[in-house]
Amino acid sequence: MLSLTKTSSRQREILEVVFRNGWDYMRGLLTGGKASKPQLPSPEVLRNILIELGPVYVKLGQLLSTRPDLLPGRYIDALSTLQAQVPAVAWPEIEVLIRQQLNGPLEEIFAELNPQPVAAGSIAQTHKATLTDGRKVAIKVQRPGIDLVIAQDIALIKGLAELVSISDFGSDFDLVALADEFSKALLAELDFTQEASFADQLRRNLSTSRWFDPKQVVVPQIYWNLTNKKLLVMEWLDGVPILSSSLSASQYLAGSRTNGTADAAVVAEQRRAVTTLLFRAFFQQIYIDGFFHADPHPGNLFYLDDGRVALLDCGMIGRLDPRTQQILTEMLLAIVDIDSQRCAQLTLQLAESSPRVNLARLESDYDRMLRKYYNLSLSEIKFSEVIYEVLDVSRNNKVILPGSMGLYAKALANLEGVARTFDPEINLLDQIKPLITDLFRRQLLGDDPLQTLLRTALDVKSLSLQSPRQLELLLDRMTSETMHWNLTLRDLDPLRRSLDDSANRLSFSIVVGSLIMGAAIISAKAQTAQLLVPSNALFAAASFLGLWLIVSILRSGRLRS
């Protein structure tokens, strides 16, 4: 918060943008108002603020859009459409930077280099070139000075995180740690060698598959001899974005300029084949490899001239460990079965920690969420929306899920959106059913059934050898009375104290009653003054103790104790 209030031109610009966009809470806070009712800006206001603040904050918004585990769906929708409206850097500046990053003269490496960029983003822009051996390449070059801008804005982002950490959102999440996470992600995007290594890994993973033809999926080849932190040189692929103006609709896909019925049938068949290919390629990445392209929006999926599909821009990658993959597979089945109890159990298994969660409430929320799908056919269910709702239920119940869940949900949402737009008649159940069956088979038997059988046999042998000894130890402890049972029952101590209080009062009442009866008997049979004295003393003592008991019960407010 202190760093945000220091005077500087950039900080003043941020304050002006905040005021201009009418974030009432921040406006009141910065002018010394009360922070008794903290709140985040509306999705539209937040989006406008990030756009006005410039490319770095747009990139921050894009990163936030990958975290539906942290933000409600309306924020994710608003931030998902963020695109940096930045002009391309002039060619003379780009040329200087390229020459600085190359190991030799530019003219000896490139036969041709187009000064007009084919794409310009907040961190880099891309140019088409031809190597001296005739191979076409794409050159992704970092914007000059962007590293200094990001370093400056990261400090301001952390200051903003400290300020927003007192909001209702900040009360549930460590926003300072979250700002550190996003800062590291921003800095990582400045190192193009990381994106290059991701692309190589993805290409290796997709080079073999039992679900699809690996030759139909392409990841651009990296030219490592020309690639470094600020320069990425990769294979040029001729094609168009998969949803680009309907690819000139059927003509492009069918490879024909006629509009006959046969062409329409061919196009429909090709669209179905492409959609199936995409689903299977991404299901393998997510559920088999645990290493997946986390940003499959339409601009990163290309339909190539030769009919193959290309995955571009591997800067954002998600990772899932085998345990998480298995839980997510079971979650899909629980959703299909409308099993709220199982969904709740799997959510707690996914949690990063073991928070004290009201399981009954969690199950109730899942039941209410899944109930609206009772009368829908599975082909009508949008699985990405269901996953978003799963994250909403978790967030509302204070269950903190790993960050990879956000990338998982965002990847599914983008993939499903592209698939339904590209082929509106697609039935997702038909695509998922054979894959789920194979997934469970692989989880049960592994890739090598014989190896899995041998490993299981060794485990059974080990268990059979250890069991008699463990049973002997158990019986020995039981017979020697050295076994201790540690039982913890919630809310038992208050019940025990309440029973103790009730028993004590009952015993006390019996004693008081006995004293009164004793005093009365002595008084009735007293023949001398000597007996009247102890009788009156007992009666007085009993009366005092009885009165004290009545007063204590009245003061406790529990007349029924």
TrEMBL record:
<dbReference type="Pfam" id="PF03109">
    <property type="entry name" value="ABC1"/>
</dbReference>
<keyword id="KW-0472">Membrane</keyword>
<protein>
    <submittedName>
        <fullName>AarF/ABC1/UbiB kinase family protein</fullName>
    </submittedName>
</protein>
<feature type="transmembrane region" description="Helical">
    <location>
        <begin position="536"/>
        <end position="554"/>
    </location>
</feature>
<keyword id="KW-0418">Kinase</keyword>
<dbReference type="InterPro" id="IPR050154">
    <property type="entry name" value="UbiB_kinase"/>
</dbReference>
<keyword id="KW-1133">Transmembrane helix</keyword>
<feature type="domain" description="ABC1 atypical kinase-like">
    <location>
        <begin position="82"/>
        <end position="346"/>
    </location>
</feature>
<comment type="similarity">
    <text>Belongs to the protein kinase superfamily. ADCK protein kinase family.</text>
</comment>
<dbReference type="InterPro" id="IPR004147">
    <property type="entry name" value="ABC1_dom"/>
</dbReference>
<dbReference type="GO" id="GO:0016301">
    <property type="term" value="F:kinase activity"/>
</dbReference>
<keyword id="KW-0812">Transmembrane</keyword>
<feature type="transmembrane region" description="Helical">
    <location>
        <begin position="506"/>
        <end position="524"/>
    </location>
</feature>
<keyword id="KW-0808">Transferase</keyword>
<dbReference type="InterPro" id="IPR011009">
    <property type="entry name" value="Kinase-like_dom_sf"/>
</dbReference>
